[in-house]
Every structure is written in C-alpha cells, then in structure tokens.
Design brief:
With 356 residues, this protein is α+β, with helices and mostly antiparallel strands. It has 8 helices and 20 strands. The chain folds into 2 domains: 220 residues, P-loop containing nucleotide triphosphate hydrolases (Rossmann fold), CATH 3.40.50; 115 residues, Beta Barrel (OB fold (Dihydrolipoamide Acetyltransferase, E2P)). 24% of the residues lie in helices and 32% in strands. The structure holds adenosine-5'-triphosphate. Adenosine-5'-triphosphate (ATP) binds next to helix 1.
Length: 356
Amino acid sequence: MTHLTLQSITKRFNAAYAVDHVDLTVPDGKLVCFLGPSGCGKTTLMRIIAGLETPTAGTVTFAGRDLTQVPANRRDFGMVFQSLALFPHMTVAENVAYPLRLRGVDRNARAARVAELLDMIQLPHMADRKVTQLSGGQRQRVAIARAIASSPKLLLLDEPLSALDAKLREAMQVEIRLLQQRLGITTIMVTHDQREAMTMADEIVVMEKGRVAQVGKPLDIYRDPVNEFVADFIGLGNILPVTFSGDRIGLPGGQSIAAHAAMRIPDAPGDIRLLIRPEDVCIRSAAANAGQNALPGKVTFVRDVGASIEATIDCDGFTLTAATTPRETPDLRIGMPVFAELPAHACKLIAARAEH
Ligand code: ATP
C-alpha cells in the first residue's frame, strides 16, 4: 500500500481558498497530471504533497503513513520544478550525485549510480560538463536524473517542460513518459497544457477554482467530460446552448436534430449544452449523401495544414468547427455550401458552466 492519498485537503491564503476540499488517490506506478487554468490551485496542491506548504486542513498519506506534518526533506520525494534549480557551479555528474552525497552514499556507490543515471538519460559523455554548457533539453534530463537518483517512491514534476520550445517539449514528453514507465515510479505532474496531459498521463485531475472538476483517463475525460468547463478545457469542441425535448435537440438557429436513444441528460440543474468534437462533424457536399442530422451551412474558413484540415461552417445561427483530411474533403473552399452532419451517437449533452 504505497499509494498517495489526499483527504479533504484545503489551503486558504487569508480568506481565499487556493485548494478547496480535495480528495484524491494516486495509484502506484501511475503518472497523474494536475491540469487546469492559471490560478486553479495545481501548484499549491503539489507543494502540499511535497511538504513545501502546510494545508489549512486535511491529510496527506503515503504508504499508509500520515505525512501531513512531515517536512519536505524527510518525505524522500524526487522533485523537478519549472526553474530546474540545478547548481550552475557543479558539473552534470556532481549535480546528479548531490542527493546521494546528502544521504551519505559512499564514493564508489555514488559513482556507479551516477554512471547508471547518465546512461539512462543518454548523457554519459557529458559527466564533466558544467550544466551551464548544456542545451535546455539536456538540462531537463539532468534535473530528472537528479530527482530520481536516490530512487524516490514518488516523483513530483511542476511544469518541468514549460521553458522548452514546442518541438523539444514534445520530444521530452515522450522521453519522460517512457522513463517513468520503465522505472514504474509513481509520478505527479502539474501542467496547464492539455495536450501534454493527454500525451503523458495515465490519469488526469482537472482542477477548477481549487476543486477537482473531474478525474479520469485522458480519453474518458475527452469523450465524457462532466461539464462545459471540462469539455472546453480538454481539446477543441463545439459547445452549443440547446434545448432537449426527449427525442429532439433544439439548436440555437431554431433547427433541431434527433437525439440518440441512449443519450445521457446531465443531472445538474441549469442550462444544458451540446458537445460535439470537430472530428465527429462530417462534411457532406450534398444532402443526398448526408445521413440523419445534416444541417445546411456554408464554409467560412479553411485551415489546411497539409495533413489535416479544419473548417468553420456557418449553419445559420451558430458556427461549427469540423476536422477533416484532404482525402475526405479534397476541394473544400471558403463560400462553398455544404451539409454538416452531426451523428446522434457523437452528440453529448453536458451541464453549462455555473456562471452562465
Ligand atoms: P499557475 O498555472 O498560474 O501556476 P496554479 O493553478 O498553479 O496557477 P496556484 O499557484 O496553486 O495556481 O495558486 C492558486 C491560488 O492561490 C491563486 O489564486 C494564487 O494567487 C493563490 N496563492 C498561491 N500562493 C499564494 C501565497 N503564497 N499567498 C497568497 N495567495 C497565494
């Protein structure tokens, strides 16, 4: 039983709740992402787990032991922060060896472990370089090697890739994920980038205003978001204010489409929204080859990036974004009349944002 459990964790700064009654279990060996917009409390929650912040209320339990009052340096967790905090005056090898030296690991064992870690991060030939002489991606790897040097049971990563350019960032996402899986180390990562969370996580914890909005596997959250906030935050989506009358969904332009027989109705009170992802909107050139739920419209924008196409369709009263490919819709152009088909099985009804 080495999993991490948070029970009713709350953190108030004066009167404001940064974290508001969070309950969470992080399973062994999994990578869990805390995802949410700026200010939703991700970093505060991570700092509470690390022991760098004391919660106003609630408990942090790891491997069956209550750690709530245990200081950071006695939790034995590995950490990598946005700033990396590598020691600039030390070499790569000295940086990686640092936590081992603190723990009194003897010189030979230390050298062997450092060599093993440098092999793991594919920088064995850079042991004697100063970290200031490394590229951003190499520094990132050194920070991770240092964090896992003393084989921590839990690895905490707070936006560790945010300083990298897009391409390197994507490469490091895969690298960290593969390393994490190979080591089987339970990892929590904070990010505000939903693509990063979808790429790396076994489970995503979506946070909104200090609370957990939804916890689940990336694709489950993408396909079945609990509300408009989560739907909007995870991936692109068409989200329309609608009415529902049992078997028909009333659209903003006055049109209506058929509902799916097994469609779930949100049990929260208030307005409802229709969610349909762009890849589920089918573009047809004529009504004859469109199925049920085809709406006439006109193409108002086409973003063709070679491998994929994103089209905006004005459906008289609202617009839809459709994702397609050059093979499916070879001659799509602005101004073209089309039919946008919204297959009933791909339509979801979700609760509107509370403030609407
Ligand atoms: P970001 O993505 O911008 O880092 P975040 O989701 O990590 O945001 P937190 O840094 O956890 O958010 O902050 C949550 C809330 O708590 C914010 O409103 C923030 O202003 C507030 N907060 C955080 N730390 C403190 C502090 N030391 N004193 C007062 N308020 C704080």
